[in-house]
């Protein structure tokens, strides 16, 4: 197990306040002093895990936009990649969603800068959808972004609370509902 994976697991299971360097070290089978060669503090470990929990979805969105040409396909590819991410790295997603509020002020600034990049990528996705005629021009990008983040949270929560009879179907249907919800209305 890698050090960052162990930190993600401990933060995910015990929360920021219940986690400690000792628990991470024990999971790795190393001494606490050895762990400090990887992280200077618990706060640094949390920042590293949160950054990974944000960077992986950013990469998924970027790849979906590069590899697909239509809005619907981009959304479905992004949601499918998110599903794969939560299957493989649910601890990272959980920590980013639930524990980032405990970041130091300095770490919050750094994570927020990365989150702004993610927002810009979402906005480009929605600008392209409007240009394709696939998104109602009256819907602000911020609203669409928050709706998509809600879809991501719902998929994550379904997975974490499990079991879901057909998670692939849930992911697909979530994407379909999201895309249809943004579509221009014929009477407009």
Automatic annotation (TrEMBL):
InterPro entries: Homeodomain-like_sf, HTH-type_TetR-like_transc_reg, HTH_TetR, KstR2_TetR_C, Tet_transcr_reg_TetR-rel_C_sf. Pfam families: TetR_C_24, TetR_N. The keyword DNA repair does not apply. Residues 1-57 form the HTH tetR-type domain. Residues 20-39 bind DNA. Keywords: DNA-binding, Transcription, Transcription regulation. PANTHER family: HTH-TYPE TRANSCRIPTIONAL REGULATOR BETI (PTHR30055:SF234), HTH-TYPE TRANSCRIPTIONAL REGULATOR RUTR (PTHR30055). This is TetR/AcrR family transcriptional regulator. It comes from Novosphingobium cyanobacteriorum.
């Amino acid at each position: 197990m890698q050090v960052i994976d162990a930190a993600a697991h401990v933060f995910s299971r015990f929360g920021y306040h219940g986690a400690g360097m000792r628990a991470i070290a024990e999971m790795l089978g190393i001494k606490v002093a050895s762990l400090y060669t990887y992280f200077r503090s618990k706060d640094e470990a949390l920042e590293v895990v949160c950054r990974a929990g944000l960077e992986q979805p950013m990469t998924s969105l970027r790849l979906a936009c590069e590899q697909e040409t239509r809005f619907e396909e981009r959304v479905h590819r992004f949601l499918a990649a998110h599903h794969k991410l939560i299957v493989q790295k649910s601890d990272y997603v959980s920590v980013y969603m639930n524990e980032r509020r405990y970041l130091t002020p300095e770490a919050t600034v750094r994570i927020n800068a990365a989150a702004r990049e993610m927002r810009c990528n979402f906005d480009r996705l929605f600008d392209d959808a409007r240009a394709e005629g696939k998104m109602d021009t009256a819907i602000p990008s911020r609203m669409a972004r928050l709706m998509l983040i809600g879809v991501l949270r719902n998929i994550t929560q379904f997975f974490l609370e499990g079991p879901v009879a057909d998670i692939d179907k849930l992911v697909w249907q979530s994407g379909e509902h999201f895309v249809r919800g943004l579509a221009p209305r014929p009477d407009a």
